């Protein structure tokens, strides 16, 4: 089954030419990073100075936002991630795989030898097609499945279609999330509260339940929590609540699935430069100084956290389950 089976009827045709040009620019570097190993030691770099630091330019996008329109554009490892076949032959489904952390994980998984299916919203088609092209350049199969995970029916179909297209499913990354900044609980409407919980918690449950039914022994489930699970921001009340739930869910499910031979872990990112932040996830004041309150004095880039997901998906981590891995630039827990 080809990824075209899942293309939405409202294809963003006019964005195709721009997307193709953008992919063309990164293709030679991406292919080189995916296929040409280097034994030469890489120069040491001060991590504080490795990526852009605030202040950032004022910017905003309508939800869900596109990575290609951010300033600066996030680094997902397009030209830097080099694989070593840690996930050779594996079959992964990643929600929110079009941009941000999900995009970086999709690129890393493909360059580690996995075939990858990504889910995203139809409005994110331009970003998603860039990711699919990068996966294919790594010599792996790319499956694109757009749709809204707030629907239980779609979540079940998503898992079914991904497993059918990939020939099975042995890695699940629940990464898609909804985040919106509100200064007061009085500002959070019932509609927006329901939107956040459906995206971050209900979908997690529905997708995981469907996946567990088809995943073989040796599979891995990785959920994206947040530093907000442990140190909630005052303007992300509903989001932080769901991320605490994700961490708890991951620990409990790990115990339940141990006898089935399926490992479950979570990653708790700190401030990362993704479309979540510019599409309502932060106030403009916080966005301009995003990440400056960490010891690194900058936000993380998605490329910097993708290796954590690779580690947790790899069979080398066979004794690692029920854990929450932090990557927060020196601030927060765990």
TrEMBL record:
<dbReference type="InterPro" id="IPR020904">
    <property type="entry name" value="Sc_DH/Rdtase_CS"/>
</dbReference>
<feature type="region of interest" description="Disordered">
    <location>
        <begin position="37"/>
        <end position="87"/>
    </location>
</feature>
<protein>
    <recommendedName>
        <fullName>Uncharacterized oxidoreductase YghA</fullName>
    </recommendedName>
</protein>
<keyword id="KW-0560">Oxidoreductase</keyword>
<keyword id="KW-0732">Signal</keyword>
<dbReference type="GO" id="GO:0016614">
    <property type="term" value="F:oxidoreductase activity, acting on CH-OH group of donors"/>
</dbReference>
<dbReference type="InterPro" id="IPR006311">
    <property type="entry name" value="TAT_signal"/>
</dbReference>
<comment type="similarity">
    <text>Belongs to the short-chain dehydrogenases/reductases (SDR) family.</text>
</comment>
<feature type="signal peptide">
    <location>
        <begin position="1"/>
        <end position="33"/>
    </location>
</feature>
<dbReference type="InterPro" id="IPR002347">
    <property type="entry name" value="SDR_fam"/>
</dbReference>
<dbReference type="InterPro" id="IPR036291">
    <property type="entry name" value="NAD(P)-bd_dom_sf"/>
</dbReference>
<dbReference type="Pfam" id="PF13561">
    <property type="entry name" value="adh_short_C2"/>
</dbReference>
